[in-house]
Every structure is written in structure tokens, then in C-alpha cells.
Design a protein that fits this description.
The complex is a heterodimer of chains A (354) and B (228). Helices cover 36% and strands 23% of the residues of chain A. Chain A contains 8 helices and 19 strands. A 4-stranded antiparallel sheet of chain A has the order 10-9-11-12. Chain B is of the alpha+beta class. Helix content of chain B is 30%, strand content 34%. Chain B contains 4 helices and 11 strands. Chain B has a 5-stranded mixed sheet, sandwiched between helices. A 5-stranded mixed sheet of chain B has the order 3-4-5-7-6, covered by helices on one side. In chain B, strand 4 and strand 5 form a beta hairpin. Chain B is globular. Classes of the chains: A alpha+beta (354), B alpha+beta (228). The interface between A and B is large, with 40 and 59 residues. Strand 13 of chain A pairs antiparallel with strand 3 of chain B, so a sheet runs across the interface. Chain B: InterPro entries: ExoRNase_PH_dom1, ExoRNase_PH_dom2, ExoRNase_PH_dom2_sf, PNPase/RNase_PH_dom_sf, Ribosomal_Su5_D2-typ_SF, RNase_PH. Chain B: Belongs to the RNase PH family. Chain B: It is found in: Cytoplasm; Nucleus, Nucleolus.
């Protein structure tokens, strides 16, 4: 049997110190349920030595206002009592698991219900508080947890915080625990009976039903009908009348077999300026702009940027012929290549237009 | 989202003027530690939400001009998986649009949702409870929002607020987050195949249903704060 903690409370989620707390709580709960043998684990066996049912309890901590231990133990034992597992039949070597619809699920075999009660001590055992809340827990000296069942048998006892307790104090605590546990067990039994009765009668059950309607912070309404007939007609009219926007898809340009271009690339907005060349750069960039207007479709501004290179090249690999250099465009312009590249730019488009 | 071609002229959807939302219930301020908390019940689907904020944020996550919004959704059984993460994103996007995070820079707002029971329309229940919790916490919002789910079954009927059984038998499930100011769609999450006409129909139906949900918000908050 496994106990799994799931923390919804944000303050506990964040604090690494609190994960220690969770480990402690986990250990205590496991000891409380597993070692006290409250569940008959032998009945969970399906085929001895091979198949067995595994029970996992997921605890969701919604709000931490002190004394998680008690609340967790009550929730866990109630859940275990309420739980029904699928029915199983073993015929020789064959194992058949019946689903919920085929056969009624079977409850777990629970011998007794251990419930934890926590006591906090202040001022070296002078003051005792049962069921401390969060603020009290923060300032307490030590904690004593007693897990007891309604037959007044102690299942687990744990003392933490390093306080020294007298024998009489521990006995007194166990008596208080006995009283509390009887009350709580009665409450659990009543709730389980209620649920059984409602399920038999076919009424509504579940967490949704437990929403208290008398509280001012709670509100409930019956199912509301929604009249949607006029809405549907208006929608049909609207969809009929609207014309879907026309999509502008640029036609693809085929450069070489296997290589095509749709649309134009984006203008290179990176300017690598060096102070002594800034004037020339301006001139050259103006010339480039002119060329842009004349041959808009055949220019690709940049794609491949080599690490320290000052040139940007677009190379289209042609599967049949050798590599053709399509365009050269200098970002840091050198005078020699500038004129050459301009000439090339003017030549290339004419060559490629077939 | 898979859109089938619109079949012009064929009205596949029957007019179901008697669509119903399931029973609604809400409780605010039920948890003492979070700054705002709410539980929302739609039929049998129940979600409990705790909202913490604006609170301190880790330097790595802080944002200089707005609050960092974190959403954590815990499933009923087991560890959170990919489906929970995707729902968290939907809820987060909607909350970012609705909450005025620019009023609280360098802080964090944490939303923790716990699924108590899932009987269909889980995402819309999460959205509704998140909005109620934000109201309870008193966070500044640009608008209120609500979630509505509808399912399109195999005959083409649009079912509002489906149960888990109805969701399973339907061919598409659509959830919309609708804002309170202009009834516009803030978020849409769809699963399954449907036509564009069905999509528009679902939006219209959900917008109509949102009116009852906003009325419910008004009534529950009115009940809480009224003096009578």
C-alpha cells in the first residue's frame, strides 16, 4: 500500500524545508496504515506469488491551517473504507477482472480504523493543546501524535521536537485521544452510511452535493435553459453574407529544377558601419536601392552569413550543372568588388530569364 | 483543428432551442491560506482553485513591467502530465488577457487548480473557478471571463455543457473563453473535426450561454456582499 502526497497549497509547494515535513508525514501515515495491518493485505492477493492488487492513496492537501496529520489520516481511512475494487475470479490459471458494469465492485477488507490525534506542547510540557492550528504549530516546543482506533488500541505513537514527557502526561493524552477517536469514527460511519443509502436510492452523491447552500459565500442554481434559436439564425445569415478574405499567394519562381522561391526575402536591416567607409556606404546603398526597384523579383538580400566574412552569398545548387554563383552583395563594401558586383547584378537577371 | 469543407445549402444542425446548462454551484473564500479561493461545480465536475498574489517572485522569473502569472493544474489521480500542461497554458493565456498584470510589476500571481471530479467540460469549469477566485482575491481585472464547452455529436447536434459520457460519444468538443464586456472570444480550444459553419454556430451558442454564467457570477457575488 502506498501513500502519495499532492500539495495544492502554494506555500508548501515553494518551501524546500516543507518537503521534509511531507516526508515525515508520509512516513507516519505509512506506518499508521501498513504496520497496524488495518487492511487485510492477504485478501488483495489474486494469484499467489504472481498477481496482487496494489492500493495507492493520493492525498491532495488543499489548505494548510495546521494539523495536516489528523486530517490526512481521517481522509485516508475514510477513502479506504469507501473504496470498491473490481471483482476478480480465478479459474485455474485464468484470471478474469470484471468491470464495474458487469459485477458490483467489492469493498476492501478493513479490520479497524486508525485515526491520528496530535498534541502540541508548550513551555516544557506545561501547556497542552489538542489539534493545533498553523500558528500554534509554528511556536510549539514539541508534538506528540497518537494513532488510535475505536477499540482504544494504540496503532502508532510518535513524539517529535525533543521534549521530555512524563508518563502521566502520555497516559492523559492517550485518554483524550480515545475520546476524540470514538467521536470521529462515529462521524465517519454516519457519512459512509449516508452515502450508501443515497446511492441505493439513486439520489445525487459526490463532492458536488456537499456544497453548503446556507453559507453566504456559496451559491447554487439549477440547470439553466439557454434559448439559442434566434442566435443560430443570425449566425447563418452572417456566415452567408461574409465573403472570406481573398488570400494573396505570390506565384512561385522556379530557379532551377528542385529549387523555387515564393515571395521575397526580408531586407537586411543589419548595418555594419565602419567610420571611414560610412560615406561610401551611403552612396553604395543608394545605388543598391535603385537596383532594387528595377529588378525586384530577382534579388535576394541575404541568407547565408559566414562568420567573419564581409560578403553575403546566395548560392543555388543546380543538380545538373556545376555551381553557379547567382549574386554577390557586399555588406562592407570594397571599391573593387563593388563595381564588379553591380555589373554582375545587371548581367545575371538577363541570363536567367529564359 | 480539422475543418471539413462547408457544404453550402445543407443545414446539418437541428435547432435545439432547449439546450441546458447543468446545475451550477460556487463557493468563495473556502480556503484560509490563499489570498483568494473558489470552488466551482458544474453538474458533477468540481474544481477547487487557490490564487496567491501579487506576491514575491524569484529573480529568474520576474518581469520588470508586469506580474508573472503561473498556473498549476493538479489532476485527481497521479502526477500532472501533458494534458494538464496544455490546459494550464489555455488558462494562463486567458488570465493574462483578463488580469491587469501591468499594475503589479516584479511580482508573481500563482493560480493552483485542483480537479476534484471530472464529469465533462473540465476546462470551462477551471476557467470559471479561476475567474471567481480572482474576484475573491480582489485582483484587478480588465474584464471577467467565463468558459463554456459544447460538443458536436455524430448527427451534427450541438450539445451545451456536455457530460463526460456525451463528450466521449461526440465527434468534436469545443471550449471557448468569453469575456464579459463585449462577449468576445478570448480563447478557443477544440478537439475533433467540424465544419466552419458548426464552429460559428458553437461560438454563437456559447456566447448566449455565457450570459447566464455572468448572471450567476453577479448573483453569487451580490448574495455575498449584499446587506440583506
Amino acid at each position: 500500500m502506498q501513500v502519495w502526497w499532492n500539495v495544492t497549497c502554494e506555500s508548501l509547494l515553494r518551501c524546500p524545508r516543507h518537503s521534509e515535513l511531507l516526508v515525515k508525514l508520509n512516513r507516519l501515515l505509512e506506518r499508521c496504515f501498513r504496520n497496524s495491518k488495518c487492511i487485510d493485505t492477504e485478501s488483495l492477493c489474486v494469484v499467489s506469488g504472481e498477481k496482487v492488487w496494489q492500493i495507492r492513496v493520493d492525498l491532495h492537501l488543499l489548505n494548510h491551517d495546521g494539523n495536516i496529520m489528523d486530517a490526512a489520516s481521517i481522509a485516508a481511512i475514510t477513502a479506504l473504507c469507501h473504496f470498491r475494487r473490481p471483482d476478480v475470479s480465478v479459474i485455474g490459471e485464468e484470471v478474469t477482472v470484471y468491470s464495474v458494469d458487469e459485477r458490483d465492485p467489492v469493498p476492501l477488507c478493513i479490520h479497524h480504523m486508525p485515526i491520528c490525534v496530535s498534541f502540541s506542547f508548550f513551555q516544557q510540557g506545561t501547556f497542552l493543546l489538542v489539534d493545533p492550528n498553523e500558528r500554534e504549530e509554528k511556536v510549539m516546543d514539541g508534538l506528540l501524535v497518537i494513532a488510535m482506533n475505536k477499540h482504544r488500541e494504540i496503532c502508532t505513537i510518535q513524539s517529535s521536537g525533543g521534549i521530555m514527557l512524563l508518563k502521566e502526561q502520555v497516559l492523559r493524552c492517550s485518554q483524550i485521544a480515545g475520546v476524540k477517536v470514538t467521536e470521529i469514527t462515529e462521524l465517519i460511519q454516519k457519512a459512509l452510511e449516508n452515502d450508501k443509502k443515497i446511492r441505493k436510492e439513486g439520489g445525487k452523491f459526490g463532492f458536488a452535493e456537499s456544497l453548503p447552500n446556507q453559507r453566504i459565500t456559496a451559491f447554487k442554481i439549477e440547470g439553466a435553459p439557454v434559448n439559442t434559436s434566434e442566435v443560430e439564425e443570425t449566425v447563418e445569415e452572417i456566415t452567408h453574407n461574409t465573403v472570406p478574405p481573398t488570400e494573396i499567394v505570390p506565384s512561385p519562381i522556379l530557379w532551377a529544377s528542385g529549387t523555387a522561391q515564393i515571395g521575397e526575402g526580408v531586407l537586411n536591416t543589419w548595418e555594419v558601419e565602419e567610420p571611414h567607409e560610412s560615406e561610401e556606404a551611403d552612396d553604395k546603398s543608394m545605388e543598391e536601392e535603385e537596383e532594387v526597384s528595377t529588378t525586384p523579383r530577382h534579388e535576394r538580400k541575404e541568407t547565408v552569413i559566414l562568420s567573419d566574412s564581409e560578403e553575403e552569398e546566395v548560392i543555388i545548387l543546380n543538380p545538373d550543372k556545376t555551381e553557379k554563383k547567382f549574386q554577390k552583395q557586399a555588406s562592407n563594401l570594397h571599391e573593387d568588388t563593388a563595381s564588379g558586383s553591380r555589373k554582375k547584378k545587371k548581367k545575371k537577371p538577363s541570363q536567367l530569364v529564359k | 483543428m480539422v475543418c471539413l469543407p462547408l457544404d453550402a445549402g445543407a443545414h446539418k444542425f437541428r435547432h435545439m432551442a432547449d439546450r441546458r446548462l447543468r446545475e451550477f454551484g460556487c463557493e468563495q473564500n473556502l480556503l484560509s491560506r490563499p489570498d483568494g479561493s473558489a470552488s466551482f461545480v458544474q453538474g458533477d465536475t468540481t474544481v477547487v482553485v487557490g490564487i496567491y498574489g501579487p506576491a514575491e517572485v524569484k529573480v529568474s522569473k520576474e518581469s520588470y513591467d508586469r506580474a508573472t502569472l503561473e498556473v498549476i493544474l493538479k489532476p485527481k489521480v497521479g502526477l500532472p502530465g501533458v494534458a494538464e500542461r496544455s490546459r494550464e497554458q489555455f488558462i494562463r493565456e486567458t488570465c493574462e488577457a483578463a488580469l491587469l498584470t501591468a499594475l503589479h510589476p516584479r511580482t508573481s500571481i500563482v493560480l493552483i487548480l485542483q480537479v476534484i471530479h471530472d464529469d465533462g467540460s473540465l476546462l470551462s469549469c477551471c476557467l470559471n473557478s479561476a475567474c471567481m477566485a480572482a474576484m475573491d482575491a480582489g485582483l484587478n481585472m480588465r474584464c471577467l471571463f467565463c468558459g463554456v464547452t459544447c460538443a458536436i455529436d455524430l448527427d451534427g447536434n450541438i450539445i451545451l455543457d456536455p457530460t463526460a459520457k456525451q463528450e466521449k460519444e461526440s465527434r468534436a468538443v469545443l471550449t471557448f473563453a468569453i469575456d464579459s464586456v463585449e462577449r468576445q472570444v478570448m480563447m478557443s480550444s477544440t478537439k475533433g473535426a467540424f465544419t466552419t459553419a458548426e464552429f460559428h454556430q458553437s461560438i454563437a451558442i456559447c456566447q448566449k450561454a455565457a450570459e447566464s454564467i455572468f448572471q450567476f457570477y453577479r448573483d453569487s457575488v451580490g448574495r455575498r456582499y449584499s446587506k440583506s
